[in-house]
Design goal:
Blueprint (H helix, E strand, L loop, with lengths): L2 E4 L20 E2 L2 E2 H11 L4 E6 L3 H8 L16 E6 L5 H8 L8 E5 L2 E4 L2 H11 L3 E6 L9 E4 L5 E5 L13 E8 L15 H6 L8 E5 L3 E4 L3 H12 L2 H4 L8 E4 L24 H11 L2 E7 L10 H17 L6 E5 L26 H10 L7 E4 L2 H10 L2 E5 L10 E3 L2 H8 L1
Parallel strand pairs: 1-4, 1-6, 4-5, 8-12, 14-15, 14-17, 15-16, 17-18, 18-19
Antiparallel strand pairs: 2-3, 6-11, 7-13, 8-11, 9-10
Helix pairs in contact: 8-12
The structure holds zinc ion.
């Protein structure tokens, strides 16, 4: 599969870090970010690369040549084949793709040149092939969803809505942001918009929302743009500490599994109404700390209100959107939310019989944790389950995790750690 890297454009917001070199050549721990991208691709066998360049593009072309040159950083060949497309006049970030059309005869990876990432590309490509869409977007939660564009998808992963930064957004939304890594079919380039410049997001991708031809690929792997000096320094630190590589899903992950009611939000018995959902004190700060630690933050919650017919799946999703929105406003995010909609006992009025089953996911069974472990390559022995009930501790132990009980009493379920709050848990182990 070919890879197209978009390296045109100016980096005005980051010019205080480096103004005389193009953004993709800004060094992170001594190596240009674009070289880091190319190294990540090469390691996974993606060696056929086209780079589109414009402003100061000669610096990029001189540095990498055709890909056989020796890197001044590593002393070894870049080890890839690179072709270029030089924009003489600005074409917008997608205009060059139409000029390259003849060289793109199968689905290709399209990446931004100024993002730091280390992702498992083979997994991403395999997912794209399985779904069979025209476009698959690499999506993830981020720490500032309130000022990011959002992607809304259905449960099959089909993109329903593309909410750009400037669009009006719903009051509560899922924290799912386009990370700027895509797999695209060349047939997306069949018709060129008539404008002189072509914007990838607004003119090519957004119109595919709601057509059933574009899919999301949710992943907790490390992808960060370096649009501002602050983000640039964070990325440098994350490279230095090994966090960027560690989060590649080819490597074993560690997670903190979180119960919902009584751990994240105030316990109100069966939570049936979205207005009853309120975050507990310092939960956002605690989850933010988990996000920064390299642990995945994954909610695993029993929601028998679905089986009881008291809350619909749509309503539960709205409640979870509220949870993600409130956390997002405080800069915190969840890597995934798993819920068990089942309940074993039949015979109540209004119940939904299809959910009245003995399942493997209802805690104290460990099904949700085991599924998350498969989905995200998690080492359960290196992970924690945190909750306020015996079911949480049992499920955590059954899955092979360490366990922490949140309680203000003297409850003992053989947990490894007893704390008063999620915040206290985070303070003790991180
Ligand atoms: Zn279940």
């Amino acid at each position: 599969m070919k890879t197209v890297i978009m390296a045109g454009g100016r980096g005005t917001r980051i010019s205080s870090v480096a103004s005389d070199i193009p953004k993709p050549m800004i060094k992170i721990e001594g190596m240009p970010v674009l070289e880091r991208e190319i190294a990540c691709l090469k390691k996974q066998g993606f060696t056929d690369i086209i780079i589109t360049v414009s402003h100061l593009g000669n610096i990029i072309m001189d540095y990498f040549g055709d890909g056989s040159k020796i890197s001044p950083v590593t002393g070894e060949s870049f080890g890839v084949n690179i072709e270029y497309y030089y924009e003489n006049k600005p074409l917008g970030n997608a205009g060059a793709l139409f000029e390259l059309k003849d060289r793109l005869n199968e689905d290709f990876l399209l990446l931004n040149a100024d993002a730091m990432f280390d992702i498992n590309f083979k997994r991403f490509v395999a997912y794209h092939k399985k779904m069979g869409g025209l476009v698959t977007l690499f999506t993830h939660p981020n720490s500032h969803p309130y000022d990011s564009g959002l992607i809304v998808a259905d449960n099959c992963g089909t993109v329903e809505k593309w909410i750009a930064k400037e669009d009006i957004r719903p009051q509560f939304y899922k924290n799912r942001v386009n990370a700027g890594l895509h797999i695209i079919s060349p047939s997306v380039l069949d018709i060129r918009p008539e404008t002189e410049k072509v914007d990838l997001d607004r003119q090519l991708l957004k119109p595919l929302a709601g057509t059933g031809k574009m899919y999301i690929y949710d992943s907790p792997e490390y992808v960060k743009d370096m649009g501002t000096p602050d983000r640039y320094y964070t990325v440098c630190e994350d490279v230095r500490t090994g966090k960027v590589t560690a989060k590649n899903l080819g490597n074993k992950q560690k997670a903190i599994f979180l119960d919902r009611d009584g751990t994240i939000n105030k316990y109100v018995g069966f939570l049936r109404n979205i207005d009853q959902f309120e975050l507990l004190d310092k939960v956002s700060a605690a989850i933010k700390k988990i996000n920064e630690s390299g642990y995945l933050a994954i909610v695993v919650t029993n929601q028998p209100v679905i089986a009881r017919g008291e809350v619909s799946v749509k309503e539960l999703e709205s409640i979870h959107n509220k949870m993600e929105t409130l956390l997002g406003l405080d800069g915190a995010f969840l890597d995934a939310v798993y819920y068990c909609p089942h309940h074993p006992d039949r015979g109540y009025e209004g119940e939904r019989p299809e959910y009245k089953i003995q399942c493997d996911c209802r805690k104290p069974k460990p099904g949700m944790l085991l599924k998350a472990a498969r989905d995200f390559n998690i080492d359960l022995a290196n992970s924690w389950m945190v909750g306020d009930g015996e079911n949480d501790i049992k499920a955590g132990k059954e899955a092979g995790c360490r366990t922490a009980l949140i309680t203000k009493e003297d409850d003992r379920y053989n947990q490894d750690l007893t704390v008063m709050s999620l915040w206290q848990f985070v303070e003790e182990i991180l």
